[in-house]
Protein backbone atom coordinates (compact mmCIF):
# COMPACT_ATOMS: atom_id res chain seq x y z
CA UNK A 1 0.00 0.00 0.00
CA UNK A 2 1.30 3.45 -0.91
CA UNK A 3 0.21 6.88 0.26
CA UNK A 4 -0.99 8.82 -2.80
CA UNK A 5 -3.22 11.18 -0.79
CA UNK A 6 -1.81 14.35 -2.32
CA UNK A 7 -0.79 12.99 -5.71
CA UNK A 8 -4.02 12.31 -7.60
CA UNK A 9 -3.51 13.64 -11.11
CA UNK A 10 0.30 13.51 -11.07
CA UNK A 11 1.03 9.90 -10.26
CA UNK A 12 0.88 6.98 -12.65
CA UNK A 13 -1.20 4.69 -10.44
CA UNK A 14 -1.30 1.96 -13.06
CA UNK A 15 2.49 1.76 -13.02
CA UNK A 16 2.72 2.06 -9.24
CA UNK A 17 0.23 -0.75 -8.70
CA UNK A 18 2.61 -3.20 -10.38
CA UNK A 19 4.61 -3.13 -7.16
CA UNK A 20 1.99 -2.73 -4.42
CA UNK A 21 -1.52 -3.99 -3.75
CA UNK A 22 -3.11 -0.57 -3.49
CA UNK A 23 -2.84 3.18 -3.12
CA UNK A 24 -4.75 5.56 -0.84
CA UNK A 25 -6.23 8.79 -2.23
CA UNK A 26 -7.57 11.56 0.01
CA UNK A 27 -10.70 13.63 -0.60
CA UNK A 28 -10.01 16.05 2.27
CA UNK A 29 -11.30 19.60 1.57
CA UNK A 30 -7.78 20.87 0.82
CA UNK A 31 -7.02 18.24 -1.83
CA UNK A 32 -7.50 18.59 -5.59
CA UNK A 33 -10.67 16.48 -5.34
CA UNK A 34 -12.63 17.40 -2.22
CA UNK A 35 -15.61 15.41 -0.98
CA UNK A 36 -15.77 16.97 2.46
CA UNK A 37 -13.76 14.14 4.03
CA UNK A 38 -12.72 10.55 3.43
CA UNK A 39 -10.92 9.02 0.50
CA UNK A 40 -10.55 5.97 -1.68
CA UNK A 41 -8.37 2.92 -2.14
CA UNK A 42 -7.42 2.01 -5.69
CA UNK A 43 -6.10 -1.40 -6.69
CA UNK A 44 -5.88 -3.81 -9.62
CA UNK A 45 -5.78 -6.84 -7.30
CA UNK A 46 -9.29 -8.42 -7.11
CA UNK A 47 -8.59 -10.23 -3.84
CA UNK A 48 -7.28 -7.08 -2.22
CA UNK A 49 -10.28 -5.12 -3.51
CA UNK A 50 -12.66 -7.66 -1.98
CA UNK A 51 -10.86 -7.43 1.37
CA UNK A 52 -11.10 -3.62 1.36
CA UNK A 53 -14.83 -3.77 0.51
CA UNK A 54 -15.39 -6.13 3.41
CA UNK A 55 -13.37 -4.08 5.89
CA UNK A 56 -15.17 -0.83 5.05
CA UNK A 57 -18.52 -2.48 5.87
CA UNK A 58 -17.98 -3.97 9.32
CA UNK A 59 -16.14 -6.95 7.82
CA UNK A 60 -19.20 -8.29 6.03
CA UNK A 61 -18.99 -10.49 2.96
CA UNK A 62 -20.32 -8.45 0.03
CA UNK A 63 -22.50 -11.35 -1.16
CA UNK A 64 -23.71 -13.17 1.95
CA UNK A 65 -23.65 -10.11 4.23
CA UNK A 66 -22.19 -12.28 6.98
CA UNK A 67 -19.30 -10.89 9.03
CA UNK A 68 -16.17 -12.75 7.94
CA UNK A 69 -13.51 -10.42 9.36
CA UNK A 70 -13.15 -7.50 11.76
CA UNK A 71 -14.05 -4.20 10.16
CA UNK A 72 -15.64 -0.84 10.85
CA UNK A 73 -18.01 1.54 9.12
CA UNK A 74 -15.69 3.16 6.57
CA UNK A 75 -18.31 3.67 3.88
CA UNK A 76 -18.43 7.03 2.13
CA UNK A 77 -21.93 8.47 2.01
CA UNK A 78 -23.60 8.84 -1.38
CA UNK A 79 -23.61 12.64 -1.37
CA UNK A 80 -19.87 12.83 -0.73
CA UNK A 81 -19.21 10.25 -3.44
CA UNK A 82 -21.31 12.22 -5.93
CA UNK A 83 -19.41 15.38 -5.03
CA UNK A 84 -16.07 13.65 -5.63
CA UNK A 85 -17.21 12.17 -8.95
CA UNK A 86 -18.44 15.55 -10.16
CA UNK A 87 -14.94 16.96 -9.69
CA UNK A 88 -13.10 14.11 -11.38
CA UNK A 89 -13.78 15.47 -14.86
CA UNK A 90 -12.28 18.80 -13.78
CA UNK A 91 -9.17 17.29 -12.21
CA UNK A 92 -6.67 18.45 -14.86
CA UNK A 93 -8.20 21.93 -14.95
CA UNK A 94 -8.04 22.21 -11.15
CA UNK A 95 -4.38 21.22 -11.09
CA UNK A 96 -3.59 23.68 -13.89
CA UNK A 97 -5.43 26.39 -11.97
CA UNK A 98 -3.47 25.69 -8.79
CA UNK A 99 -0.22 25.64 -10.74
CA UNK A 100 -0.99 29.06 -12.20
CA UNK A 101 -1.70 30.44 -8.74
CA UNK A 102 1.60 29.04 -7.45
CA UNK A 103 3.42 30.71 -10.35
CA UNK A 104 1.70 34.00 -9.47
CA UNK A 105 2.71 33.67 -5.82
CA UNK A 106 6.29 32.90 -6.87
CA UNK A 107 6.46 35.93 -9.13
CA UNK A 108 4.97 38.32 -6.58
CA UNK A 109 7.06 37.07 -3.63
CA UNK A 110 10.39 36.49 -5.39
CA UNK A 111 11.92 39.69 -4.01
CA UNK A 112 10.70 39.22 -0.43
CA UNK A 113 13.90 38.18 1.32
CA UNK A 114 12.19 37.13 4.54
CA UNK A 115 10.24 34.36 2.79
CA UNK A 116 11.50 31.44 0.77
CA UNK A 117 9.12 28.98 -0.87
CA UNK A 118 9.59 25.29 -0.23
CA UNK A 119 9.97 23.91 -3.75
CA UNK A 120 8.23 20.83 -5.07
CA UNK A 121 10.26 18.10 -6.69
CA UNK A 122 9.13 16.83 -10.07
CA UNK A 123 5.44 16.99 -10.94
CA UNK A 124 3.12 18.45 -8.32
CA UNK A 125 -0.61 18.90 -7.82
CA UNK A 126 0.21 22.14 -5.97
CA UNK A 127 -1.64 20.90 -2.93
CA UNK A 128 -0.02 23.46 -0.61
CA UNK A 129 1.91 26.72 -0.89
CA UNK A 130 4.45 26.56 1.92
CA UNK A 131 7.18 29.06 2.75
CA UNK A 132 10.04 29.35 5.23
CA UNK A 133 10.08 32.43 7.44
CA UNK A 134 13.71 33.56 7.52
CA UNK A 135 14.61 35.65 10.57
CA UNK A 136 10.89 36.18 11.17
CA UNK A 137 8.75 35.30 14.18
CA UNK A 138 6.51 32.83 12.38
CA UNK A 139 3.76 32.80 15.02
CA UNK A 140 3.60 36.61 15.22
CA UNK A 141 3.53 36.75 11.43
CA UNK A 142 0.57 34.35 11.32
CA UNK A 143 -1.25 36.31 14.02
CA UNK A 144 -0.91 39.58 12.13
CA UNK A 145 -2.02 38.01 8.87
CA UNK A 146 -5.09 36.67 10.67
CA UNK A 147 -5.76 40.20 11.87
CA UNK A 148 -6.11 41.11 8.20
CA UNK A 149 -8.50 38.23 7.60
CA UNK A 150 -5.89 35.90 6.08
CA UNK A 151 -5.80 32.48 7.69
CA UNK A 152 -2.64 30.38 7.46
CA UNK A 153 -1.80 26.90 8.66
CA UNK A 154 1.13 24.88 9.92
CA UNK A 155 1.48 21.56 8.13
CA UNK A 156 3.92 18.77 8.94
CA UNK A 157 5.07 19.73 12.46
CA UNK A 158 7.88 17.56 13.91
CA UNK A 159 5.97 14.40 14.76
CA UNK A 160 8.34 13.37 17.54
CA UNK A 161 7.28 16.45 19.53
CA UNK A 162 3.58 15.61 19.42
CA UNK A 163 2.25 14.72 22.91
CA UNK A 164 1.58 11.06 22.12
CA UNK A 165 5.09 10.39 20.80
CA UNK A 166 6.70 12.29 23.65
CA UNK A 167 4.73 10.18 26.10
CA UNK A 168 5.04 6.86 24.26
CA UNK A 169 8.68 7.00 23.18
CA UNK A 170 10.21 9.65 25.41
CA UNK A 171 11.18 12.05 22.64
CA UNK A 172 12.16 15.57 23.64
CA UNK A 173 13.30 18.86 22.13
CA UNK A 174 16.65 18.57 20.37
CA UNK A 175 16.33 14.92 19.35
CA UNK A 176 15.87 15.80 15.66
CA UNK A 177 17.16 19.36 15.22
CA UNK A 178 16.68 19.57 11.44
CA UNK A 179 13.03 18.57 11.66
CA UNK A 180 12.53 20.98 14.54
CA UNK A 181 14.16 23.86 12.67
CA UNK A 182 11.94 23.16 9.67
CA UNK A 183 8.82 22.93 11.79
CA UNK A 184 9.54 26.20 13.57
CA UNK A 185 9.78 28.29 10.41
CA UNK A 186 7.34 26.83 7.87
CA UNK A 187 3.91 28.30 7.20
CA UNK A 188 1.23 27.48 4.63
CA UNK A 189 -0.30 30.41 2.77
CA UNK A 190 -3.83 30.19 1.31
CA UNK A 191 -4.18 28.12 -1.87
CA UNK A 192 -7.32 26.52 -3.25
CA UNK A 193 -8.75 25.69 -6.66
CA UNK A 194 -11.30 28.51 -6.73
CA UNK A 195 -8.87 31.13 -5.47
CA UNK A 196 -8.72 34.24 -7.65
CA UNK A 197 -5.73 36.30 -8.74
CA UNK A 198 -7.14 39.18 -6.72
CA UNK A 199 -7.09 37.01 -3.58
CA UNK A 200 -3.47 36.05 -4.23
CA UNK A 201 -2.57 39.73 -4.59
CA UNK A 202 -4.39 40.43 -1.32
CA UNK A 203 -2.28 37.81 0.47
CA UNK A 204 0.91 39.05 -1.16
CA UNK A 205 0.17 42.66 -0.20
CA UNK A 206 -0.36 41.65 3.42
CA UNK A 207 2.78 39.51 3.47
CA UNK A 208 4.93 42.33 2.13
CA UNK A 209 3.44 44.81 4.58
CA UNK A 210 3.86 42.64 7.66
CA UNK A 211 6.86 40.41 7.20
CA UNK A 212 9.52 43.04 7.94
CA UNK A 213 7.92 43.91 11.28
CA UNK A 214 7.85 40.34 12.62
Percent of residues in helices comes to 25-40%
The CATH homologous superfamily of the largest domain is termed Aspartate Aminotransferase, domain 1
Strand tally is 6
Largest sheet: 3 strands, mixed
Q: Shape from CA axes?
A: globular
Poorly predicted residue ranges: none
Number of helices: 8
CATH class of the largest domain: Alpha Beta
CATH topology of the largest domain: Aspartate Aminotransferase, domain 1
Kindly report the oligomeric state of this protein: single chain
End-to-end distance: 43 Å
- CATH architecture tag of the largest domain: Alpha-Beta Complex
How do the strands of the widest beta sheet line up side by side?
A: 1-2-3
In brief, what are we looking at here?
By secondary structure, the chain is of the alpha+beta class. It has eight helices and six strands.
Task: Walk me through what this model shows.
The strands form two sheets. The chain has a three-stranded mixed β-sheet, with no helix packed on it. It is globular. It is an alpha+beta fold and 214 residues long. The chain has two domains: 2-88, Type I PLP-dependent aspartate aminotransferase-like (Major domain) (Aspartate Aminotransferase, domain 2), CATH 3.40.640; 91-213, Aspartate Aminotransferase, domain 1 (Alpha-Beta Complex). It has helices spanning 13-16, 46-55, 78-88, 91-109, 138-147, 163-169, 177-185, 197-210, and strands spanning 2-3, 23-26, 39-42, 115-117, 129-133, 186-189. The protein is built from eight helices and six strands. Helix 4 (91-109) packs parallel to helix 8. The longest helix has 19 residues, at 91-109. The model has no long low-confidence stretch (mean pLDDT 90). It starts with a strand and ends with a helix.
Amino acid sequence: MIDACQALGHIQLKDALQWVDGAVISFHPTKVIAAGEGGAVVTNNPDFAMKVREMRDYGRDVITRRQVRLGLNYRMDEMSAALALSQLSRLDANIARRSALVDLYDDQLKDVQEIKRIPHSGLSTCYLYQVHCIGVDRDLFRKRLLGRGIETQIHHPPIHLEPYYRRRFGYSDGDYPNAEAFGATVVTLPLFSTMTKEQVWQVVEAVKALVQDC
